[in-house]
Write a structure and sequence with these properties.
Shape: globular
CATH architecture of the largest domain: 3-Layer(aba) Sandwich
Helix content: 25-40%
Number of strands: 19
Structural class: alpha+beta
Bound molecules: coenzyme A
CATH topology of the largest domain: Aminopeptidase
Distance between the termini: 28 Å
Largest sheet: 7 strands, mixed
Radius of gyration: 22 Å
Length: 400
């Protein structure tokens, strides 16, 4: 451990933590008016600071729930606002902050912690594994149309920003969650609101009303490109639909918004069937496949017991976790569940790699193929592929 003092910040210290964090990501401090909103995104008791002797590093979390394969929801901490003052980096401040957070999460019964990483090389050493990915794509709006047989039904309602912030949390809660999705607590909605209100163009939102009430929504911004202000992009940060009709209805609406050249759908699930909905799928182009949530299994026995498994022969998996050694041990994974076992391990892996398997994004055989899983029984990777496999591709859809 280091000599830094790490402690929970008081509410009246949150703004200093915010200023410090924003400086580490090269963003100016919040103005008084902005802080009135963005301060609401700090969960009381959720921010910690490293003092040496003044504040030199910070991290924060909010409590939420993560949906795991099979539909169970487990207590999750959303980690964000991580930064170390530029003149104090590479002296172990982040390591001390991470250790303190994990200790606190474990003591409180948090099952997993999720974050979005600024750089891919940082968090693996603390047990965070890349557990969901996403895709950003563009659609040529002026030419794209839905296929004539695309699902229909339901009505679209356009909301202004004030009404949206009031209504969307309730609509989000009604939508079924795929593995990797999370509850959105009040502090997260306040973070989104603060971020949206800082933009120079207004946020707009639409809700899709199906036969049983609101069953989908999208938020969007229309902005001219700096170099070509007459070319307008419609960016979609959020789009959730509970039914095929809601998904098609939201896209039908977006494709019909006037004075827009391109729709940029940001950080979407990898298996979203958008190409299948368009009359000409070549009017869609992929921008990138990106990292989404990095997951840290804080309580491995509870996490493994919470999810469902596919139908395959049981596999004994040995997990090592130097930071939280209570997680280390061998677990028998079978279609009936997961429990500790004394039997010899067929696969050996660290807790970071287990997090990559956990939601179903990566296959055990692929991880074994690149040396991230040690194979003791050659039949085990194929069985683990089926056990950890999921019906839909895991995706969170919540950025923080
Ligand atoms: C990333 C950041 C928090 C690291 O803080 P730090 O106090 O320098 O980290 P530590 O000294 O505790 O380093 C711990 C380990 O991580 C490694 N590490 C830290 N930052 C790294 C980076 N950006 N890339 C690769 N490795 C990194 C260190 O080399 C060290 O490695 P070790 O385990 O082999 O000793 C800090 O550089 C920062 O604030 N960056 C800008 C803001 C940012 O990106 N925040 C993260 C938002 S998700």
């Amino acid at each position: 451990m280091s000599d830094f003092e790490i402690r929970t910040l008081r509410t009246d210290e949150h703004r200093a933590a915010s200023d410090l964090f924003r400086d580490t990501v090269h963003v100016r401090p919040a103005t008084d008016a902005e802080w009135e909103r963005s301060g609401l995104a700090y969960q009381p008791g959720g921010a910690i600071g490293a003092f040496d002797p003044e504040l030199v590093g910070t991290a924060r979390f909010f409590d939420a729930e993560l949906t795991v394969p099979g539909g169970a929801r487990v207590p999750m901490a959303g980690v964000t606002g991580v930064g170390v003052r530029a003149d104090r980096t590479r002296r172990g401040v982040l390591r001390a902050l991470m250790a303190a957070q994990l200790e606190e999460f474990a003591a409180r019964g948090v099952v997993c912690a999720n974050l979005l990483a600024s750089e891919a090389a940082i968090y693996g050493r603390f047990g965070y594994g890349l557990a969901t990915r996403n895709r950003t794509y563009r659609v040529d709006r002026s030419r794209a149309r839905l296929r004539a047989d695309a699902p229909v039904g339901g009505e679209i309602e356009l909301l202004d920003a004030d009404r949206a912030w009031e209504l969307l949390p309730g609509v989000y809660d009604r939508i079924g969650h795929r593995p990797g999705m999370m509850s959105r607590p009040e502090v997260l909605w306040r973070l989104y609101e603060a971020q949206c209100r800082r933009r120079s163009v207004p946020m707009k939102a639409v809700v899709h009303h199906g036969p049983d009430g609101p069953d989908g929504f999208a938020t969007y911004f229309v902005e001219g490109l700096e170099a070509h202000p007459w070319t307008k992009d419609l960016e979609v940060p959020d789009l959730f639909a509970a039914t095929p009709a809601a998904f098609a209805g939201l896209w039908r609406f977006l494709l019909g918004v006037d004075l827009v050249d391109r729709i940029v759908a940001e950080e979407r699930p990898l298996d979203e069937p958008i190409e299948l909905l368009l009359a000409d799928h070549r009017l869609l182009s992929d921008d990138r496949i990106g990292d989404e949530h990095w997951v840290r299994l804080v309580d491995v026995p509870k996490a493994l017991a919470a999810r469902e498994y596919g139908a395959a022969e049981p596999v004994a998996v040995e997990v090592t976790d130097p930071l939280l050694p209570a997680n280390s041990g061998t677990y028998r994974i079978s279609p009936d569940g997961a429990e500790r076992t004394g039997e010899p391990a067929a696969l050996r892996l660290d807790v970071t790699t287990l997090a990559m398997l956990y939601l179903g994004t990566w296959k055990a055989s692929a991880l074994a193929g690149v040396g991230r899983i040690e194979v003791r029984d050659p039949a085990a990777p194929a069985a683990a592929d089926v056990l950890f496999g999921t019906r839909s591709v895991p995706w969170s859809g919540s950025h923080f």
